Amino acid sequence: MPKPAAPAKKDDNEPSPIIKATLQAAVIAGISNILAQAISAYKDGTPLVIDWVPVFQFFLFGVISTPPNFLWQELLETTFPSHHVSPTREAIASASASDEKALDREASLGTLVEPRLNKGNTFIKWLLDQTVGAAVNTLLFSMFMHGTQAAMQHRATSSFGASPDQSLWFLIDSFKRGNAIQYHSVNWNWVWEESKREFWGLLVASWKFWPFVSIVNFAVLKTVAARSLAGNLAGIAWGVYMSLFAAQ
């Protein structure tokens, strides 16, 4: 009698889903900023010279904002599961007819039960994600971007200046010196006021895009990791918009 195949061993070196999602989001955020700079250069009719400072800022925002968002999505899914297991039509018909052979056959084929969309839970998750989640993310973005941009204003007075072609050297030099991001010099009252001022405009703009992405995520995709990847891919378009907004 052949031995059953041994279960695949989990690679201990494989990063966790939350780390994968964070890396994906950070890279996509950086790419979206580069695309936004390319669009701006095309519209202005100027050569594209990548400014690596905002690319870094968006990359860093992806690193900081993804873990709490990942945990938020896990909380929503745990509290309001999108799918529940229900008997298949075939299983119900076989059970109604007391057909044990048919039930055994369906059990061997794995067709006794199937996941079905829980519309009530999906709506609740969608509503919470587009109200509580959207509000927190909008405020987080504004606070982070205004704060980080202000914390890196010393770039203009550095030996590299604010020229995009010197931006990479500025980042390398300032990180070597340990003074790249100077949050201690930020006027956080100003950051808070600016974040409040643009809050509703950004929130309304997000409602024109993310509700559709959210409902597809909750209704079609079944794992948080898959939803995170889909959200990140959709986030390229949103990231371009936010990059153009942040550059104003």
TrEMBL record:
The keyword Membrane appears for this protein: yes
InterPro entries: Mpv17_PMP22
Localisation per UniProt entry: Membrane
Membrane topology: Multi-pass membrane protein
Keyword tags: Membrane, Transmembrane, Transmembrane helix
Family affiliation: Belongs to the peroxisomal membrane protein PXMP2/4 family.
Protein name as catalogued: Uncharacterized protein
